[in-house]
Fold these 4 entries.
Entry 1:
Amino acid sequence: MVSPTRQHRTALVLTVSLSVLFVALAGHLVYIFAESSEGLSARATRQHHMRYPIPATRGRILDARLRVLAGSQACESVFADPKIVEDPAKAARQMAEVLGLDHVTLYRQLAERPDSRFVWLKRRVPAATAEAVRRLGIAGVGLVTEGTRTYPNGALAAHVIGCVGVDEQGLEGLECLFDERLSGRPGEAYALADRNRHPIWMQPDQFTPSEDGQHLVLTIDAFIQAAAEKALEEACREFHATSASVVAMDPRTGEVLAMANVPTYDPARYGAFAVDARRNRAVTDTFPPGSSGKPFVAAKALEAGVTRFGEVIFCENGYWPEARLHDAGHAYGNLTFEQGIVKSSNIMMAKLGLRLGNERLHTALMDFGFGRQSGIWVPGEAPGLVFPLRRWTRLSTTRIPFGQEYAATTLQMAVAFSAFGNGGKVLRPRILRGVLDGRGRVVARLTEPEVVGQAMRPETARQMIDRTLVGVIEEGTGKRGRVPGYRVFGKTGTAQKIDPETKAVSHSRYVSWFLAGAPAEDPRIVIAVAVNEPDRSIGYYGGTVAAPVAKQILEAALPYLGVPATEPVPPASGRTHLVQQDVGD
């Protein structure tokens, strides 16, 4: 039997031991909270809180009448937190069936990145797929709302609009050039989450709203753009051309109403098309203008006083030995200045070049905007090619006047020809009419014409239309550009390209040009058409290949723009007559 005194001592020792243990435990707890509270708190926050990105909706791209050319719609994407997924193999098998993906690949994403807190499984899935993912209820697998770019009109104006990548970042065209404006600013929110990382409570004091992207309002008109693309596609198909481009402008404002190219592509599936098909040839590809460049030099010759309307110029009966120059199969003798333009005489233009001299010829090209970028807000614009004056020769004096030895883009040709329709002014071409914020309020209004030069006097421009350029359409090389009910002015051109192998002028590779404007009394639209390398056996002259393109666009655009016909429209005969094309264009 243990004595009471011994029992008391034993109880006392036990009490002291427990006290020491509690003191040690309390000290350890004090140490934990004193030394590790910040880390533990941060860990708890990470485990029980989620940061949610709030994507901004990408701004729309609209045509001149606010029709949607590019927009965005919400869809869901599937992601995973590998650290939460308890059975990666099982989850991979289940998700593979729903997402239509390889389960081995999914398993690697989940099992080989155990410390990762975020991995994409599949982006932008259909609504039915998203719902199937929810029904699986796999811990650590979730959905997030994203935007996907849509192009309601398919390939319409694709080269102008451009395309975006998988994260809706602009890659080409205006999507790229104005990516910062279109993208907006993403926001973020914090939420309390359960053990499976599912949000259960949003924390309003830790919420930053997103700011949607701005909308671009273009000068492009979808109706005129569609007409241009249709006409260009038909010409390329009929004449087996390698490529083609067209630009339609309002000569009064510099607004680009249409900019089309063949080949084209679908921006929603840009990866399925060759890079070459995505090039905006209207601003990147340069060609010699050929005879379509004659009006620019002719106007400058008038203003310099080296010729006049009505002057008779001897055109050497088709061959001028001194300049080693033919008139493309014609044996013209005496022609008035006006007739020389209408019939497109190379020899007459060469004689005007000798009268002007190289310095004034060079100035003429520069005054009309050749040899430099136009300044349009479109990526990839080429400056064209005008050699420095020091590189010009005596041959240049007689070749420049009919469109050789320099090169221009389709856009440059449209800008230069517009000067005849606006009193001689060279305007900066505009593709953007304005910018709206996410709520539709005006951020920028860009409607004022920007004059960058005066190529000729207003009276010269007016007389060139009335006395030469209308005649090209009515009785000269541009007859296939006639539009019933309207007086059209224009100029044809057939330019020989440089053979890439021999570096000499090719006799099999051509560019067919046509410049046109209407109505002649008060021009509302100017069109430049370039058809590259049509099949020579079918047709290659500008008046044959390119003029019908402009005609189709004008027939659609003029009534659409509300321009009344000024001449009686002859009744349709039900028969089609092909016009024999003069070869001097």
Note: The chain has two domains: 53-218, 222-266+283-432+450-560.
Entry 2:
Amino acid sequence: MSEAIGPYRTAWCGEVLADQVDNEVKVAGWVHRRRDHGGLIFIDLRDRSGIVQLVFNPDSSGEAFALGHELRPEDVLSVGGGVVRRAEDTVNPELPTGEFEVQVTSAKRLAKAETPPFQIEGFSGEVGEDTRLRYRYLDLRREQMQKALELRHRVVAAMREYLGGEGFLDIETPVLTRSTPEGARDFLVPSRQQPGSFYALPQSPQLFKQLLMISGYERYFQIARCFRDEATRADRQAEFTQLDIEMSFVGVDDVIAVNERLLAHVFERAGGPEIAGKMERMGYDEAMGRFGTDRPDLRFGLELVDLGDALRETEFKVFRSVLDGGGAIRGLNAGRREMPRSELDGLISRAQELGAKGLVWAFREGDGWRSPTAKFLSEAELADLNQRLGAEEGDLLLLVADKVPVANAVLGQLRLDLAERFDLIDENENRLVWIVDWPLMEWNEGEKRWDALHHPFTAPAGDFDPSDPGAARAQAYDVVWNGQELGGGSIRIHDAEMQEAVFGALGIDAETARDRFGFLLEALRYGAPPHGGIAYGVDRIVQRLFGAETIRDVIAFPKTASGFDLLTGAPAPVDELQMRELGIGIHKSKLAGH
């Protein structure tokens, strides 16, 4: 840390080391622990750098000794004194400063502290998250939280260091902008000066970074705050931090190469896995086929197998009707397992919870199966299924027959559940992979329309036929680390006519496109270079590096899973006067529903 100066300290607590012995120092911080040993009082003083032991001695501390009796945990203190070595039998090997102590000669309590609602020292996770978030300023004093935020600082500093060295410019984009559909609900901000109109908080700086490329800046980045009014989860918050990157005159390979060097640099600085050479790449179709997800965890097997060909002529009506309806039968081999019927029923319930109509379980026994479904399948079919699944005696086999997306999603999640349940994941292994060659669009059965898999500004790979959008591939790429998506991006459409054609295939008519995206379409007609980029979830990167359970543990002031700020009480009602100034009101039905 930098040199400690000011009226309260001349040294940081964690830096009272051998070079300070026999020196007079002043240190300041919070009382971490107090121990009264009769004639002597010992205080562990804590600041951001660490902990140092203070000794209050009636013979040498003068008036400060009386204060030592009054101090309580979390009181704020500034003390002066001489640094000495501890007696050999009192050394604390668990602290960097454990061989030294400060013999106090002067002390001033700068602030008293009430008894905290939970213990800062020795906190072991027994305190509920709601309490931690309600008193977040106390929770942030804990060593674990301080380490998390220090790591976050190092990650962001490394990002800036690398990108600055590669010629990228850090450029801010607006936080108050207009609402444009990007896949999630916008947070809306009413305008007082234009009653009835609203700003939107950005879901990402997507359109602005494209405009910067059209403006000729060629290499842009930003540590951007983004906002999405959607349900939160372990790795998602309504407001989050994104490393946003865009480049001109590039293709997919160029963007990936720059980002592999970026990740290698960040991990080197922040203690992540070593990236030597090019990272693994996997096509989207392969990822979905083998793992049922576009963010596969490659640290273990249990890969999915397509069983449709083996059952194409089956007389089992459940399987046959799914295949005749265009669905799929997919399975996985969970290995040799012993599970009682109650646990197998639990797997069926889990599959149904995930969206499947049901789940077929079977254990290989001899050449056949032990399963309620075995009687509906021929010996030849069972033999073929065993062969395709690589089944050996006693292996547990799980099958889902459903629409392709459902079968993939359900077995993909069951694969993860089983790996965790049977301890199949080597936590010391790290697997990073680029998922490439995405479809441009996917069919939304519920809405009866095509949706962009990334966003509507992603460039097709090759020709694009608006009459057959499902056949188009995208110049898109995601980077996945141990089953968690860290970031994703694409080459963008840089031709106005192509952009309008893609909008049309997505059901965005010309009038709507002009209304919502007219400024982009206009800009594309003034000489737009080929360009592309990527965005990373900074919170997710830090969470993964730190080994935290959720991104809430690496964000200074996060929201709860319901989007509530327990510290400040946000969101909260506002004064009626403010509402009148904005020309808005709350419908009674919304208040009743709340």
Note: The chain has a mean pLDDT of 93.
Entry 3:
Amino acid sequence: MSHAFYRKWRPRTFAEVVGQDHVTQTLRNALKHSRIVHAYLFSGPRGTGKTTTARILAKAVNCLGDRVDRPCNECLMCEAVDEGRAIDLIEIDAASHTGVDDIRDLREKINFAPSVARYKFYIIDEVHMLSGSAFNALLKTLEEPPSHAIMVLATTEPHKIPATVLSRCQRFDFRPIPLEDMMARLRNIAVHEGLEVQEGALDLVARQSTGSMRDAESLLDQLSSYGGGEITLAQVQTMLGTVSSQAVKDLVDHLASCDVAAGLGQIGRAIADGADPRQLSKELVEYLRGLLLMKTTTLGPSYLTEEQRTEMARQAKSFTLDRLVSTIKLFNQATTDVRDASRPQLPLELAFVEATLSPEPDMESAATSHSAPGKKPPKRMEGEKTISGQVERRPSRFSQEAEAKPAPASVKEHGGAVTAEGAMAPLKRLQDNWTEILAAIKTSNRHVEAVIRDCPPASVEGDVVTLRARYPFHKEKLEEDRSRKLVEDDISKIMGQSYRIKCILGPSAGRQDPERADEMKSLAEDPVVKAGLELGGEIGGVQ
């Protein structure tokens, strides 16, 4: 049985450790000047070389060779560690040995002298998983260590380790492995394994591994079996469920122009072609991150070609900084939500719709979009207009109708202030507080707030507030027990008395012909359109 690549090509010397020169150089100098300490803490992301470096250090301190740059990897002790038969090298998985009894056992055995080696060497992996009492027991050993013992604590979450333990260790922080270093290592492995790997395929493997050398080597190992000696970019994309860079770029263009139909269509085609929704979301986030770097530093990611840099610079100008940041947050959250979604692509579609509801780009981006060859100017959401370079939202049809109606005879003006008499007084008071009510509802549930925003109060009779819903979907949503109770509670709290709500369809819905109304109702039930309505959008019409 052959070994997996990550085991077969595990570094055996400090010089072979990839991307952690700040750690290996310090340890080599400490060995050279006999300044090895009794306890180390190696922290950092998974797959960055923490346990590997600890094993190399174990070889180095026990190496029997006469070389200045240890380990020699030729003596009996070095061979024993490499082959996993060194009895004085003890590795403990703290994830499965979390109790105080396990650490007490360690405390008892650590005092015995090493059997063969110069030092008894302990590696405690995932040390942050130890219980509080186990840490207390370990602390005693760290305070009074025997001279023949060295301990390395490895963790991916150093913030979970008590300060009393941290203060007694020499700490080294391992970093995610840089892209170029990872590609160089993969290229070297491919040559020695007799694999022909396209440069684009290596680049995608390295990016997919997000700084973890172990993940990159495991993926290359899998691809070597899949590709049969030749690994192409298309093969990597098929195995990972990724999409082409052109598809991601086009999707970002649709985001910039707020073209919902084209964007959702692009997502649908990618999923139909076999793309994994979570992988698509990750690639989109990575691309948008590049735009963010481009916009804030003007340089962008270091791995871009000149052609890519020019294209991304154009796209970056199509977003304001605020909108770009919010869009990245939306798709980053979608990456997590994909796992639990009933339809895997739904979080992506929701994120896209919500991102297009963000404020429009500034004048610089608009001008750039107009001047870009072959590009259509950004599409504004219905109800927006530009005045003197500023984007404003026009009042809804209902608010326009309300403004057009003459004030009732019972409303009188006194010194510029409007007061209400009779039945209009509660309604006027509710309208005056409506903004505050919407803010309170948004704090409790932003989706309900997005729906009720288009359901203005029509009347107040006794303790009943009548809301005028624009579409049947809005009415049905607010009539759900949970939504209704939330709205009633917030209205009652701000108005200072108990109110109940009921919903009616607005006049504009009543004026539609029956066939048109059925079309609107059917469209509002579509999952994607329904999601857009929940996020505060509206149906501009049925074509």
Note: The chain has 27 helices and 14 strands.
Entry 4:
Amino acid sequence: MSDTADFSFTGQGLRQALAQAHLPALMPAIACLTGDLSALDPAWQPDLADQAQRPQAQGGLSAQAQQLARERAELLLSRWQAQGCPSAPQLPLPVLQQIMGFVTGAVDPQVADLLLHELGMAVPVGEGVGVPERLGLPADFQVVVIGAGMSGLVSSWHLQRLGIAHTVLERQAEIGGVWVENHYPGARLDTSNFCYSYSFAQDAGWRHFFSPRDEVQRYFQELAAKRGLLRHIQLSTEVQSLRYDEAQCLWHIDIVQGGQRRSLRAHAVISAVGQLNKPRLPDIEGRERFTGPAWHTARWRHDVPLKGLRVGVIGTGASAFQVIPRIAGEVQSLTVFQRTPPWVIKTPAYNQELPAGLHWLLASLPGYNAWYRFEQFWVAVEGRRRYSVVDPDWQQAGSVSALNQQLRQMLEAELDQAYAGRPDLRRLMTPDYPPYGKRMLRDDGTWSDALKRSNVTVVSEPIARITESAVVCRGGSVHELDVIIYGTGFHASQFLNSLQVTGRGGVDLHAQWGVDAQAYQGVCVPNFPNLFMLYGPNTNLITNGSLVLFSEIEIEYILRCLASLGQRGARAMEVSAAASQRYDERIDAQTRRMAYGVDGVSNWYKSATGRVTQNWPFSTVDFWRQMQLVKTEDFSFWP
């Protein structure tokens, strides 16, 4: 990245910055900053309809349209500079909707509040809309949050903002959740980091389009420090069990801290432990007999140099996909054991830094960061969801609809390019399941280039067993190895499996769930009053939206639940079994209409029974809408 001192808001310095600006977000940012709607000329309004599927530079604007937009941007920003760089005016909602419409098209009034939320602007508080400013809870009301990752931090920020006494318990020695544990080579986001950030904290100073692990971790650490959250967080504190006391309407939380066991009490508990925190090792005969170093990607051994060694990686999921290109060049040989190949979407910017001019503008132009994030959000808000919806009349194998088949053809054409001259890899890297039947991964050519190296071998034969020094496949091939790395995912469907949770009437949470975890709105569970979950059952995303957005929506819903307690002078609330069952039936019915939910497709989203316990199958807007109002008729309240 070049010296940002080269840029300014006047003359050549401005022109140099604008040459690298992302115009679909810049022009509405300028309109909002200056109040001058001439920035929104239709001549350079991008068509973002299919950007999520076929990303194009500058939203697909022609060179002429880009030049016109830059000229207008230079004029308006030079004028703004000459006026002393005044603060943005307070614009009425209709004008804001017009500016937002430059990105989204005509703004549906039903989603205007969601759009304002994602811009970090105040959402009008109305019937069931907006975050309550006062909850009306007793002064001694205590909340415990389990986990100081992405969801735990946003919970703490909201609770602190509302003056609610709370403690965040984190078993790791650092904050950051999965970003603390996953420090393997190549670890990075596979969603835009601008979407993987909070609507209320857009001062990240991102340097990449898809940030590496350390950059994401730094974002969370700096946010916690700047927002005063560290005083609420107890690190190296492991929660072992939760037990509900009906007589007192309190949760008893047993913890281990500094080797000592002790208990806390809280009126409400918010679980922010996530889904991807318990590594899954494969059930392969002889796995423990291997005498060389062996580890899961989420438990990376930095003390074992791989240079010159014979390394085997079992799995080609998201973590292995990132690890393999980073280690292929240093090992003597790399054997990749693949059960099923991933679908891969071509993403040229996946490993790129932001251009210096764009980085400077994002840091220096008020509001541009938020609008850049907003445009990224809108591209992904429904994203590729329509490509994953099942057409019940579609009969072609390997796809679930005409759109899904169209996507498959595009992805196969990209495979043709990636593996030109290597028909062996072209065959091995072609999935036999529909696109979005499993998690789709991103590649800028790094993955395919690594697999084409002369020291890399892809093995698709099923593994029969592991010996002291080798992996033996069912066909009889033997692969001698010095190191085995497991990229075999997590026990994702086993929610809260590290905790013993006992609810009202002595009900055990895991016994109630069995292998199919379920939660009303993804947040509440019958028999467990005042226990709330973030990133709970059926709140994962695969084709649309943002996990950060979902966590924000969920904690805001929890705040509304707590406000309903305050309004009634009640101490506890519990969702009814009937309401929870109705919700689950609705989720299951839609899931069967998604590519990842159809029979015959195996993925980590499904439990042992085949039910999808992970994913949200409807639109992002549907999730936003359902979470704006607490249906108190679905709950029981205790005084």
Note: The CA atoms of residues 44 and 66 lie 7 Å apart.
